[in-house]
Amino acid sequence: MAPKTDIATRAMVVILKFSGKTGPEIAELAGISERQVNRIYAKAKERGFDPASRPLILKDDFLIDAPRSGRPSKQTDDIKEAIATTICRDGNGREKTTANIAAELTSEGFPISSTTIYRVLKKSGLRKTKPTRKPSSAHSTPAATSR
């Protein structure tokens, strides 16, 4: 897949094409293929660029990427809130594994995977904590016990 061209490059292509430069000349100047030059110019015209208008108007709307469709995220606000509630509900909430949290939420009516929970927690900045424990006297050194 070809690298995406930025809006400045697209604007340069449209203006150079309008001013009479040929496709191969523009392609060489911009560092893109001639086919891409033609696509950019055709898409700008399709979106409202009129080379015959005076003064010449070149808007960002003629050059920006079209919105992409995609699968909707499972990370709705309700699920994010349910995850936060599950973690903050008791003192051991932040010690639970993502699999345990997923099992709890699934039993509460939120079917969600542990991977999705991990992503939500990572994005929100929460981390698993491990309780701190004082070392037992069996593992301490003689120098540490004499103090």
TrEMBL record:
Q: Ranges for the Transposase Tc1-like domain? A: 94-136
Q: Where are the transmembrane segments?
A: none
Ranges where the record places region Disordered? 123-147
The record ties this protein, via InterPro entries, to:
Homeodomain-like_sf (IPR009057), Transposase_Tc1-like (IPR002492)
Entries under Pfam families matching the protein = HTH_Tnp_Tc3_2
Biased composition annotated in UniProt, kind: Low complexity: 135-147
| GO MF assignments | DNA binding
Report any one BP term from Gene Ontology: DNA transposition
Q: Where are stretches of biased composition, namely Basic residues?
A: 123-133
Reading the lineage from the top rank, the first entry is Eukaryota
UniProt protein name: Transposase Tc1-like domain-containing protein
